[in-house]
Specification:
Shape: globular
Structural class: alpha+beta
Number of strands: 10
Radius of gyration: 16 Å
Largest sheet: 4 strands, mixed
Number of helices: 2
Order of helices and strands: EEHEEEEEEEHE
Strand content: 35-45%
Helix content: 10-25%
Length: about 110
């Protein structure tokens, strides 16, 4: 396993590849919460379109996509989580995408797990 740019070590569990040990541990914790019936509908690495793709002066521009670490339902509310552990801080790009996400998906609760 090789560390990424933030020094995190990629880890595989249940066929999923996680960017860090912290993210893998959060997955384990969420799986326990599913078994306990505290959360439901756990999804790993779901993607959300923040801005549709479009054409500009004859050139196709791709959509802006945000991929969170996890999504699940808790007490009837959709929760979207992003794990930030160790040196992985909230980059400027992440902050912009988080803001766009909150605007487009106001009924979802975004949680940053540090």
């Amino acid at each position: 396993m090789t560390p990424n740019k933030f020094g995190a070590i990629r880890t595989k569990i249940d066929g999923y590849s996680f960017d860090s040990l912290a993210e893998a541990q959060r997955y384990r914790d969420l799986c326990l919460l599913v078994k306990a019936g505290e959360i439901t509908d756990l999804r790993v690495h779901p993607k959300y379109v923040l801005q549709e793709g479009f054409e500009y002066h004859g050139r196709k521009l791709r959509p802006i996509i945000y991929e969170s670490d996890f999504e699940y339902n808790e007490n009837g509310m959709t929760i979207v989580e992003d794990v930030k552990g160790g040196k992985a801080t909230q980059t400027a790009l992440f902050k912009v995408k988080a803001k766009m996400f909150k605007k487009k998906y106001p009924d979802y609760e975004m949680r940053i797990i540090e």
